[in-house]
Amino acid sequence: MTALFPRSSFIGFDPLLDELSRLSRQNDSYPPHNVVKIDDKTYCVELALAGFKQNELSIEVNDRTMIVSGEHFTDSREYVHKGISAKKFRRVFTLSEYVHVGMADLVDGILSIQLNIVLPEEKQPRKIQIGSTQAKAELLVE
């Protein structure tokens, strides 16, 4: 059965889309990943990439899509048992309009990618000052 949103994760969308994304990923488990909410404006995507080196990984952002991919270079070792996956992967994350990809780091086999929600000035919450209409009318006359 084909998933509703194959090989894709949604970040920064409302909970309904997050749930649809979660359901679509049930059969898509490599590489395993977490999406961590740091605060209201910052998220972190963590991918478990044991054995990968920085030069074997790529993060590409195009419009509202972040693609994380990796491929091991040729390994000439002879394995008696190989339980650590070294397969090529491509993971697609669909980002909401205001999510910007920040820095990325590979530490102890975990690739961490910081995502920031950056709302334009006109979309940010603002306080409306409550004042007297009489005072505003006097300002307009002067």
Describe the protein:
There is one protein chain. The chain has a four-stranded mixed sheet with strand order 1-6-5-4. The protein has a four-stranded antiparallel sheet with strand order 2-3-8-7, with no helix packed on it. Residues 1-7 have low confidence and may be disordered. It is elongated, with a radius of gyration of 22 Å. The protein contains two helices and eight strands, in the order βαβββββββα. The chain has a single domain, classed as Immunoglobulin-like, CATH 2.60.40. It is mainly beta and 142 residues long.
Jot down its keywords.
4-stranded mixed β-sheet; 13% helix
Brief write-up:
The protein has 142 residues and is mainly β. The protein is built from two helices and eight strands.
Number of domains: 1
Strand order of the largest sheet: 1-6-5-4
**Number of separate strands:** 8
Largest beta-sheet details: 4 strands, mixed
Q: What is the second-level CATH architecture?
A: Sandwich
Distance between the termini: 71 Å
List the helices and strands and how they pair.
Elements: E1 8-11, H1 15-24, E2 33-39, E3 42-48, E4 57-62, E5 65-70, E6 89-95, E7 99-107, E8 110-117, H2 133-141
Parallel strand pairs: 1-6
Antiparallel strand pairs: 2-3, 3-8, 4-5, 5-6, 7-8
